[in-house]
Amino acid sequence: MGWKLESPLTAADSNVASPSLQARCSQSLGNILCMQGNYEEAMGVLKKARDQFIEIGDRRGVAQCSHRLGDIHCMQDNYEEAVEVLKKAQDQFVEIGNRRGVAQCSQSLGNILRMQHNYEEAVDVLKKARNQFIEIGDWLGVAQCS
Question: Do 43 and 58 meet the contact criterion of CB atoms below 8 Å apart?
Fold first, then answer.
């Protein structure tokens, strides 16, 4: 049974909810749409969320939305765009000192290389990502890169 998701906030709600809450709700809706395989709609909602985060100066939210958008491009076999967006997201995570975000972007980039049959470079990138995950104690990330 498919669920029809409505916008997380109506115009009336936007007068009550803070801009930060509005952005987080948009981000959550975009993530749900992505998990449901509704990539086009997810991209639109996540771009809106990213714009909201830019407007309020939430650099972490911007980076998270960018990372998810890059992953969606990858799922749509749009690897060139995915790499571009993921590298920007990775730079954003570096700027704010979010090591997990940096490692996750590295993992996504390594997976793209693997899907493009560029195995040697994929191994190098995934090893670096695995080492980043080891440094922060993220054992799931370590296992996924391995």
Answer: no
Q: How far is CA 120 from CA 81, 115, 123, 126, 143, in A?
A: 21, 12, 5, 10, 19
Judge residue 111's burial from the number of C-beta atoms within 10 Å of its C-beta, 0-12 exposed, 13-18 middle, 19 or more buried. buried
- Give the alpha-carbon dihedral of 27, 32, 34, 37, to 10 degrees: -160
* DSSP, residue by residue, 2-36: ---PPPSS-HHHHTTS-HHHHHHHHHHHHHHHHHT
- Please give the model's pTM, rounded to 2 decimal places: 0.84
List, run by run, the mean pLDDT of 10-residue segments along the chain (146 residues).
50 66 95 95 96 96 96 94 96 97 97 95 97 97 95
Structure-token pair, residue 37: 């395989």
Placement of tokens 């704010």 in the chain? 96
